[in-house]
Design goal:
Blueprint lengths: L1 H13 L7 E2 L4 H6 L5 H4 L22 E2 L3 H12 L6 E2 L8 E18 L5 E20 L7 E11 L3
Antiparallel strand pairs: 1-3, 2-4, 4-5, 5-6
Length: about 160
C-alpha cells in the first residue's frame, strides 16, 4: 500500500501542469499587435476601424463605424486593460481560436460614408457609440515556429454590444 501511494504521488507530480489563462491584454504578442503602427503586420485589421489610418489590403473603412482617432482607440484599449474581470486568453491556443468582449464605453465616433482606392475614409458623419468590441485571435507564430500566438484581430466602436 505504501508503495502504491508513492507511485500515485509520483505520477501526479509528473503530470503536466495545466496553464492558467492570462489576460489577453497582457500577452506580449497581443500587447504589441494592438498598436495601430503594428496591427496590420501582425495580421489584424484594427486600422480598418480607426479614422486616419490605412486599412490592410482587402479592407476598406467605407460604411464602417470608426474610432475618431488613434488617441480615442488607445483610450478604449486602456479601458479593456482595466476591465474587471479581464478577458482571458489560454496560454497555448489552437490556431484560429478567438477571445472576444464588448465593453461599455461611450464614444464620439465616425461613420465612414466614402473611401478612396486604398480604403481610407475620405468622408464621415459623427455618431455616438456606446460599446467597443475587441476580438483577439490565435495566429501561427511564424517561420520555423510551432504553435500560435495571440494578436488583437479587430476592435471597433458599436451602438450595441
Amino acid at each position: 500500500m505504501k508503495y502504491a501511494l508513492l507511485f500515485l504521488i509520483g505520477l501526479l507530480s509528473a503530470a503536466p501542469a495545466i496553464a492558467d489563462p492570462i489576460p489577453c491584454t497582457s500577452t506580449p504578442s497581443a500587447a504589441v499587435s494592438h498598436f495601430v503602427t503594428h496591427n496590420n503586420e501582425y495580421g489584424g485589421h484594427v486600422n480598418a476601424h480607426v479614422l486616419g489610418q490605412t486599412p490592410p489590403n482587402g479592407y476598406s473603412q467605407f460604411n464602417r463605424t470608426l474610432f475618431a482617432s488613434d488617441v480615442i482607440y488607445e483610450q478604449a484599449w486602456t479601458a479593456l486593460e482595466n476591465d474587471d474581470p479581464p478577458l482571458y486568453c489560454v496560454e497555448s491556443p489552437q490556431i484560429g481560436a478567438e477571445a472576444a468582449r464588448s465593453i461599455q464605453l461611450d464614444l464620439n465616433s465616425r461613420q465612414c460614408t466614402n473611401a478612396n482606392i486604398a480604403g481610407v475614409c475620405t468622408a464621415s458623419n459623427a455618431v455616438v457609440t456606446r460599446y467597443v468590441r475587441f476580438t483577439f485571435r490565435a495566429v501561427p507564430k511564424g517561420q520555423g515556429s510551432q504553435g500560435a500566438k495571440w494578436i488583437l484581430y479587430t476592435a471597433y466602436p458599436a451602438a450595441t454590444p
